[in-house]
Structure formats: C-alpha cells, structure tokens
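Example S7 (structure tokens).
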C-alpha cells in the first residue's frame, strides 16, 4: 500500500493568505481494517526543531517499510504540526511557542467534546469493551471534525485533533531548552507508556492526571478515563478501557538537532511500533529501562528571585540533593551572587539556555519522587 499525502487547508487569516497542514498516511486505515492506529506529529511548538529532524528520518524508514509491505497498522505522520508558529519571526527571533495574535500557547486549550459525545452515544454502549471503544471513537472524531471554528489557530487545533483523536498511540514530539530525553503522559497511560520509555531510553517520565489547560496529548488520552468516570458516576457499568496511549516526547534540548540523534530516535520509534504490532516482523526485545516514572507534581521549578547573569554549577543528568546549589545569578553592578538551590532530592533533568535571568524566571527543573505541587502543573 502506497503512502498517501493529504493537505489540510487552515482557515485563512487574511485575503491572499493560506496555510496548510500536511499529513502522511501509511498502511491500511485502522477503523476499516480492525488494526491499530498510531499518530505522530513534530514541533507543535514550532521553534522546537529536534522533532522535525526525527520526522525526516522516520519518514525515510516508513517509506522503506511501506515499499517492503511491512506496515500492518495505520501510521499517520505530521512532519510539521504548526505552520502558523513556523512563520512567526520578530526581529529575526523565532516565536514558535505562542501565537502572536492571541498570546495563546499552541499546545494548550484543545476543545473538550467529552460530555457531548457521552450524551450522544450512551444508548449505543453496552458490556462489550471493544464495541464501546469503536462507538466512542467514531462519535469523537465526528464531533471534533464538525466543531465550528472562528480563527486560524482554532482550525489548526481542530485539524490536529481530527487526525489523532481516534488513534491507539499518539506521540507528540517536543524538546526542552537543555535537557535529558524525558516524557510526559497521564497516569492511566503509564502501563502502556513504560515500554515506550524503554525503547526511547527516557531518563524520566512525568505523570499527571489532568495537568491543566488541556494540552494536546491529554486531549487525546483523557477522554477515556473521563468517560469511564462519567458513566460509573451514573451507575452505568460500561467497560471503557484506556484506549489511547498519548505521550509528549521531549527530545532532549533545542540544539540537539543532529542526524545521529534523530536517526536513532526514529529507529527507536519504529522498534516500538513493531513491538506494538503496527509493523510486521519479529518483535524486538524490550530494552532494559534507563529511567523511571515520577509525579509531574514532584517536578520542581527552580526560579531566579533576582535578575543577573546566570551560570550553572550542575549539568543536566546530575542526581542532586535538597539544598544543593544548582546555579548562581550574579548582579554585574553590585557583584552580589545569589545561589539557586534544589528544593528536593531528585534528577536535574532540564535547564534553560538563556544566560541572563529576569526576576521570577524559571531556569531549571528537578524531578523529585514526591508530589508536592497542586493546581496547574505545566509552565507557560
């Protein structure tokens, strides 16, 4: 079966202007064939470029597998998920995280169709879990694609969700500033995510259940546990499994854009898809874990209380103790040195690449083992 390229025009923001998303479709359509569907997108934050290079290498691998007739499931690849953000430059600086018109994060505020779908399909649900999944997926996709949009940003969100909301596996490829390979996923997804963490050599997976502001990955995964909770609260014992593994994959840091890393990451994704049964051939051995899972509420941001030149005393990957100095902020006028310490024992897994800190700026993150934070758990 030959790969199909589909172009998705976005709502035009102005006369004479038109952007589009492009999706690449491999293998048999899952909802017709009864197979699995995987959806993979790169650089929803458009200035996070490692994902685009991974997608480039992944496309080459999938083309080869397609030509060999080895793709047995449906695989949808969006090699560049944010044409709006990709075109946003201010004084030669790329602004790919927030839409300049609204100031909204491209990876937040995905629309919620949970209650609408639950009401629409309740009479069709029963005691067959697989049948319930099929009914809910079909209704969710219809609700997403028929939802009205008023702006280009809303049409981009609708297009991305329309492509992904009925998938068994969703991988959203991002990166941090300077970081180890790490993952974000919802707690109910962790049993299915743990093998992915092994294949990707992830040092830490950060788990939460509804972290706030409905980011893309959670918009795909949380429908299932929320439907299960919704119907159980009404005494309706419809079996509804966690039918979507959705993961934000943080491909290290923003400058980790090398063929060596990207080719390896793409191969690891293919190995996982083969392990899950979407690619024919011998099932690869499950690698040994190199990390673990910790609560997102235990990922502690390190903030600079004052402005100044920022210099780090620890590299990412260090295991640190509570109270250990990670960085210093130096006032170039007064020569005052402010030490920034880890609030917890944990893994120093990410830090900023900016070296002048403003007061209140988040400059690093340490993943502890205890859930200490509440409320919205993601940064801006």
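Recovered sequence:
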């Amino acid at each position: 079966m030959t790969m199909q390229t589909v172009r998705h025009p976005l709502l035009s923001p102005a006369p004479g202007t038109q952007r589009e998303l492009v999706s690449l479709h491999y293998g048999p359509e899952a909802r017709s064939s009864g197979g699995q569907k995987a959806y993979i997108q790169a650089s929803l934050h458009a200035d996070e470029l490692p994902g685009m290079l991974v997608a480039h290498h992944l496309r080459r691998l999938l083309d080869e597998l397609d030509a060999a007739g080895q793709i047995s499931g449906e695989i949808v690849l969006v090699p560049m998920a944010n044409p709006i953000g990709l075109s946003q430059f201010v004084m030669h600086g790329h602004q790919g995280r927030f839409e300049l018109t609204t100031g909204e994060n491209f990876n937040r505020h995905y629309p919620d169709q949970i209650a609408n779908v639950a009401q629409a399909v309740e009479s069709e649900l029963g005691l067959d879990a697989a049948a319930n999944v099929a009914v809910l997926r079909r209704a969710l996709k219809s609700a997403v694609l028929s939802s009205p949009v008023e702006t280009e940003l809303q049409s981009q969100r609708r297009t991305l969700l329309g492509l992904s909301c009925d998938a068994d596996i969703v991988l959203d490829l991002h990166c941090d500033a300077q970081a180890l390979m790490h993952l974000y996923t919802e707690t109910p997804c962790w049993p299915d995510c743990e093998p992915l963490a092994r294949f990707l050599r992830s040092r830490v997976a950060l788990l939460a259940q509804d972290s706030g502001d409905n980011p893309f990955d959670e918009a795909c995964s949380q429908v299932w546990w929320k439907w299960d909770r919704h119907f159980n609260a009404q005494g309706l014992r419809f079996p509804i499994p966690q039918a979507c593994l959705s993961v934000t994959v943080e491909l290290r840091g923003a400058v980790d854009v090398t063929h060596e890393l990207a080719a390896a990451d793409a191969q690891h994704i293919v190995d996982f898809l083969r392990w899950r049964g979407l690619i024919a051939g011998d099932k690869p051995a499950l690698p040994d874990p190199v990390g673990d899972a910790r609560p997102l509420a235990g990922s502690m941001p390190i903030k600079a209380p004052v402005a100044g030149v920022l210099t780090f005393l620890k590299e990412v990957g260090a295991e640190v103790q509570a109270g250990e100095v990670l960085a210093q902020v130096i006032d170039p006028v007064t020569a005052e040195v402010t030490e920034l310490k880890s609030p917890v024992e944990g893994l120093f897994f990410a830090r900023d690449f900016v070296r002048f800190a403003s007061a209140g700026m988040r400059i690093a993150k340490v993943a502890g083992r205890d859930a200490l934070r509440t409320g919205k758990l993601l940064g801006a």
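Notes on this example. Residues 307 and 357 are 5 Å apart (CA to CA).
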